[in-house]
Amino acid sequence: MTYHPKSEFIAVMMERGFLADCTDYQGLDEALSNGVVPAYIGYDATAQSLHVGHLMNIMVLRWLQKTGHKPITLMGGGTTKVGDPSFRSDERPLLGPEQIDANIVGMQQVFAKYLDYSDAPAGAIMLNNAEWLDSLNYLDFLRDIGRHFSVNRMLSFESVKSRLDREQSLSFLEFNYMILQAYDFLELNRRYGCLLQMGGSDQWGNIVNGIDLTRRVLDQEIYGLTTPLLTTSDGRKMGKSANGAVWLNGDMLSPYEFWQFWRNTTDADTGKFLKLFTELPVAECDRLGALAGSEINAAKVILANEVTTLLHGAEAAATAEATAREVFEKGGVGDDLPTLTMTQDELGDGISIVQLIVRAGLAKSGKEAKRLINENGARMNDAPLTDAGLMIDAAALTAPLKLSAGKKRHALVQLG
């Protein structure tokens, strides 16, 4: 793209790799150059924590604020009751109001690490769309808002089409989701002067709907900007690890495991991730990403430290690095490893090593644990583990027991 932006925010988005598409580059760039632009990203409260897959858009909001604009984090207290059908093959399980509220509390903890929610002109605000969606009158809503939507056009959106092409059921409840999201943008513009909605490129259709609706109802010029859907260089969706989702809340994933996730980045992704997930200068990210051989490992440690510092603080990052060094370089135990504490009652007369590997989170099933042992991928106290029938009793746990799966995943088991 040859567009040369005037605003700092668009320049950062382009040079760091955050930009997939924009509804009107010039119009948005002009607005960003002329004053503080309030902009939002919506988050449905489907889990108690955000995960690494959300981190790119959280960084977008952080850069928005750093360049002088006002981030709005919109919690989907209302839309979570419906569920976004975008590119899903099945309907999301519906959550009750108590679970949605609890999830929002968990998610708020993360935003506070990245954004400043002060009264400053660019101070972030957190809103919940239940504020306007819960009290909607259905007939009024159909008459005032529904008449602006063409079903033919809604059916043509890729997120809906892909579901229908596979002949998978799309409920009327889910079909309404894009109307509600469009209405969010209208309400945010009306109440808070919000000029920009951002999101992953899978949200393009929903964002365009909101822009069209706001133009029709309020005659306001507003904008949309999307980020690329992030996959790793080997084609996997960003945010998944061997153990499942990489959560951002420390009580759901320890800072050490979070640090380790970034340290295990593939060589080819290191430069790209430094640009997206840290605030290091772009030239430095490019220099580190271009390192080869064992030197790239130093770049990955910098990546892990920078990302972990933003979320969990510098001390947690330093502790994680020290633990990793102790575990990998010295073969030590490491105080900060994920730890499974067994009671004497749980242990009974003994527990099989296969069960213990599963309980420690190093395998998802007994079958996987047995395969790990049979393929020489398991170690106990740094010695190869070859006997899948081994029983561990209290005597074996007089000192913490270190279990390893491959070279990079470790856990401690202790008697409590």
Report on this model:
The chain has 416 residues and is of the alpha/beta class. The protein has three domains: 8-227, Rossmann fold, CATH 3.40.50; 254-329, Orthogonal Bundle (Tyrosyl-Transfer RNA Synthetase), CATH 1.10.240; 339-415, Structural Genomics Hypothetical 15.5 Kd Protein In mrcA-pckA Intergenic Region, Chain A. 45% of the residues lie in helices and 14% in strands. It is built from 19 helices and 15 strands. A six-stranded mixed β-sheet has the order 1-6-5-2-3-4, sandwiched between helices. Strand 14 (401-405) and strand 15 (409-415) form a beta hairpin. Helix 15 (295-312) runs antiparallel to helix 16 (314-329). The termini are far apart. The mean pLDDT is 88.
Total helices: the number is 19
Tertiary shape = globular
pLDDT averaged residue by residue: 88
Number of domains: 3
**In the CATH hierarchy, what is the class of the largest domain?**
Alpha Beta
Quote the beta fraction.
5-15%
| CATH fold label of the largest domain | Rossmann fold
Write the CATH architecture name of the largest domain.
Answer: 3-Layer(aba) Sandwich
Indicate the multimeric state.
single chain
Main sheet makeup? 6 strands, mixed
**Class based on secondary structure composition and strand pairing:** alpha/beta
Give me the CATH superfamily of the largest domain: HUPs
| Tally of strands | 15
Low-confidence sequence ranges: none
* Radius of gyration (Å): 24 Å
Strand order of the largest sheet: 1-6-5-2-3-4
Percent helix = 40-55%
Query: Whole-Å distance between the termini?
Result: 59 Å
